[in-house]
Amino acid sequence: MEKTVSEAIGYRRSTRVYKDEPIDSEKVKQCLVNASLAPTSSNLQLWEFYHVTDKGKLKQLAEACFNQSAAKTSQQLVVVVVRKDLWRKRAKANIAFLNKVYDKDDLSERDLKRKKMATNYYGKLIPTIYTDFLGILGYIKFFVFQIVGLFKPIYRQTRQSDMRIVAHKSAGLAAQNFMISMAAIGYDTCPMEGSDTLRVKNILNLPRGAEINMVIGCGIREDVGIYGPRFRLPFEDVYYKI
To answer: Is the whole-model pTM more than 0.85?
Structure first.
């Protein structure tokens, strides 16, 4: 029986050693479908998921992950890739979706306003935020927005580095959806930041604009694969009610 959300969160541990036991790639794929339902900044979905089952590629990726046991003993690997470079394509996809949703002759005034606001968001605001040239435009926007921010609340994260962080945060949320979904069906994972990201990109034949968010090992845990009891700071040290 599939675990509840709370049970899956409690069960999930970063597993460093996996059993030499196959896992169902279709079930892993369904967990990636769940990953794609994660919240994402401006619904741009600037991510891709590379589900690796080929033995040769698994070996290459394990080497690119420094042959750490979480990669070397994985039955499958999932590489979460950030595609900030696809923001124009994703914005157009949102506009096309909105035009389809609101393709009616009897739209109410409220719906017309919603459509205009949403299409303006993707057609005007998103390009304003994401367009850059060698990082220069980002800094110009940053300083302009800081000045405007003296007089009213305004979005301030407009530099190239800021937008990279936004895209990686969204990818991280998707990765968490995936790992919790895997835990819910009794599969184990380990998110790895330790990798030669250039080699990973080359192995997967990714374009220059792609960035590696994390490599996730997948399998069924060996008891020795859980390195000791879970440590977390006391909740009272990180919780503030205001």
So the answer is: yes
State the pairing for strand pair 188-192/76-82.
unpaired
**Confidence (pLDDT) at 169:** 97
H or E element in which residue 26 lies: helix 25-35
Residue 90 amino acid letter: R
Written as one letter, the residue type at 27 is K
- List b or e across 14-32, with b for residues whose CB sees 16 or more CB atoms inside 10 angstroms: bbbbbbeeebeeeebeebb
Cα–Cα separations (whole angstroms), residue 174 to 12, 145, 149, 163: 15, 30, 31, 17
Q: Sign of the C-alpha dihedral, residues 130, 208, 61, 76?
A: positive
Please report the DSSP string for 153-200 in residue order.
------SHHHHHHHHHHHHHHHHHHHHHHHHHTT-EEEEE--S-HHHH
Amino acid identity at 228: G
Q: How far is CA 12 from CA 8, 28, 70, 180, 238, in A?
A: 6, 15, 14, 7, 21
Element (DSSP H or E) covering residue 81: strand 76-82
pLDDT for 106 beyond 90: no
- In this prediction, residue 132 carries a pLDDT of 83
> Which helix (H) or strand (E) covers residue 67, if one does?
none
Write down the H helix ranges in 12-54.
Answer: 25-35
Residue type at position 121: Y
